[in-house]
Amino acid sequence: MINLILEQMQSGHLEALAELEKICFSQPWSYKSLEEELTNKTAHFFVATVDGEVAGYIGVYIVCESCFVTNVAVFPQFRRQGVATALIKMAALTADAMGTDFISLEVRQSNAPAIALYRSLGFEEMGLRKNYYRNPTEDALIMTKVFKKG
Ligand SMILES: CC(C)(COP(=O)(O)OP(=O)(O)OC[C@H]1O[C@@H](n2cnc3c(N)ncnc32)[C@H](O)[C@@H]1OP(=O)(O)O)[C@@H](O)C(=O)NCCC(=O)NCCS
């Protein structure tokens, strides 16, 4: 069992998260773009730490009845230990508690690990966005989990 703690993103996390973005994505979010989310009222960003070290993060925007995931990423040395699962559950619980109807995201069609992760958490494939990604150009799969009410 790892000693996993989830907390709201704070300025002390930004350097590690900007590094994580560079490791994971061809169009990474910069330190500054992450920093801007600290004061964005629609943004809810959560960081997972293991023994005080940043292991991963998730960002969501909650607008009216909708919750959209900006990114989910976990450092390679912390993968396959449930870190992303814990982060997504935390974001989904927050979104559900705030009265949203669903949580939705885009994922590269070739990103089999992420697609497997989202399916394991009850996300379903709802459609495609053609040529959504750059470097390389690729379609996005839209995956959504609808919250059951009542
Ligand atoms: C996708 C990613 C976030 C998964 O993070 P993680 O912490 O390793 O995920 P978890 O440990 O919570 O995995 C939960 C389940 O997802 C599936 N899964 C995760 N990684 C997988 C892989 N490499 N291959 C196949 N299935 C995988 C499995 O079903 C896994 O359960 P299991 O380990 O019991 O088999 C991580 O690989 C990552 O950061 N990748 C690069 C960034 C990225 O692609 N982000 C998504 C953008 S849309």
Describe the protein:
There is one protein chain. This protein is an alpha+beta fold and 150 residues long. It has one domain: Aminopeptidase (3-Layer(aba) Sandwich). Helices cover 27% and strands 39% of the residues. It has helices at residues 14-24, 31-36, 83-97, 112-120; strands at residues 4-8, 43-50, 53-63, 66-74, 102-108, 124-133, 138-146. It has a 7-stranded mixed sheet, sandwiched between helices. The chain is globular. The protein starts with a strand and ends with a strand. Bound molecules: coenzyme A. Residues 24, 72-74, 79-85, 107, 111, 113-114, 116-117, 120 line the site of coenzyme A. The site of coenzyme A has 18 residues, from strand 4, helix 3 and helix 4.
Task: Examine the coordinates and then state which fold CATH places here, giving the name of the CATH topology.
Answer: Aminopeptidase
For the record, the count of structural domains works out to: 1
The largest sheet is:
7 strands, mixed
Principal-axes geometry comes out as globular
Residue ranges: pLDDT <50 for 5 or more in a row?
none
Strand order of the largest sheet: 1-2-3-4-5-7-6
Instruction: Give a list of the ligands.
Output: coenzyme A
